[in-house]
Amino acid sequence: MLEAFASGFLVFAFFASALFQLAILFGAPLGEYAFGGQNAGVLPLRYRIASAVSTLVLLGISGHYVGQLGWLPKLLDTELNTWVNWFLVGFSALSALMNNISRSSKERKLWGPVTLAMLAASVVVAL
């Protein structure tokens, strides 16, 4: 039951993060909430391109957790699925670290708690 809740939370959180990155890609003035918050307003092109890549990665991760819920078949065998789950724990840990040490107080306040919750949920799924 806890694993299903954690997986569902991660589907939502990674999908919402992808939508945030997509908004940045299309010029939303959210620069203070992303990429260290060093650019207020609309981000420069290089960061918007990074947001495009991030969108795809985050959607893929969200899809992985959809498989963990059993809503779609898992694409990986059991051993590889376990490895990917632990890799995503590391990914979430790095994300939590970077967002919580950001120089941008807006980025820390928004993404700090979210990424810590994502880390906790990813550990639950991996275990």
Q: What are its keywords?
A:
127 residues; mainly alpha; 4 helices; 0% strand
Question: Topology, please?
Answer:
Elements: H1 2-25, H2 45-69, H3 78-100, H4 105-126
Helix pairs in contact: 1-2, 1-4, 3-4
Question: What's a quick, concise take on this entry?
Answer:
With 127 residues, the protein is an all-alpha fold. It is built from four helices and no strands. α3 packs antiparallel against α4.
General description of the model:
The chain crosses the membrane at residues 6-28, 49-71, 83-101. 74% of the residues lie in helices and 0% in strands. By secondary structure, the chain is mainly α. It starts with a helix and ends with a helix. It has 4 helices and no strands. The mean pLDDT is 95. It is globular. The relative contact order is 0.17. The longest helix is centred in the middle third of the chain and has 25 residues, at 45-69.
